[in-house]
Fold this protein.
Amino acid sequence: MPRHPDRQVFVSVDWLAAHLHDANLRIIDARFASPTAAQPRGDALYAAGHIPGAIFVHWRQDLSTNTPPVPNLLLDAEAFAAKMGQFGVDAATTVVVYDPGDENWAARIWWALKHYGHDQVYVLQGGAAAWQEAGQPWTTAVVQPPCTTFVARPRPAMRATKAQVLNAIHDPATTIIETRRQHNIAEAGGTVQGAFWLPSTTVYASKGAYRALIPEAELDRYLQEIGADRAACLVAT
Amino acid sequence: MALYVHGYDNVAMYDGSWTEWQQDATTPKDNVTTMLARSPVQPQ
């Protein structure tokens, strides 16, 4: 598998602290708690304190379909673009997304922006936990970004439809990877037939107050075991 | 995202796995035991 050593997904706490006041920077607080969880909701966490300049974005309420029969799918291009315009994100904007640091919600917004053609998007390494651990500023001040125009340029290859997943089950060139936790899979009535399990709890390892990606060689070992390194296409659920 | 970081560009995400796949009784599914049997052993 060819490597991309220059590929950057994360920015460090130090980088963000140094660029906090850049005019073209938009920081997104993506902290989220399931409605059934005991901890405060993401918007409550934001109201109690956040990185200066950050806006709060709720992946489900702001960036997903909320209509039956299938809620929680990513918004279509037009609706997504309208939201990003409201959030002050356009082609010139560098977006940094953060979550608590031990979850994957920032990654979902990273994926959504990438899917709609915005490459200047990064995830804060270690999230809010690393930021606060470093003693960086924290505020309750709410900013209202100026509205702008976001043009969505979808990359269909980054998203699989149900029909494509159905085809992938019988395609030997495609490897399907299930990333949810066991209890979530059981509650959902099972996984996609033929899927291999590689959950986020394996791919991210604890690093003090937050989690970080496991070393490349370690991930490679898992991927080789399931044939992902030889697959023409991967579908992650 | 982890796959992208590690150099994979051929990844499509299916974000209907939590809802769309579950709601459709006709979609082929494996239970957890079957999935674990074919998957690498991972840390607890």
Q: What stands out?
A: The first strand of chain A starts at residue 10 and ends at 11.
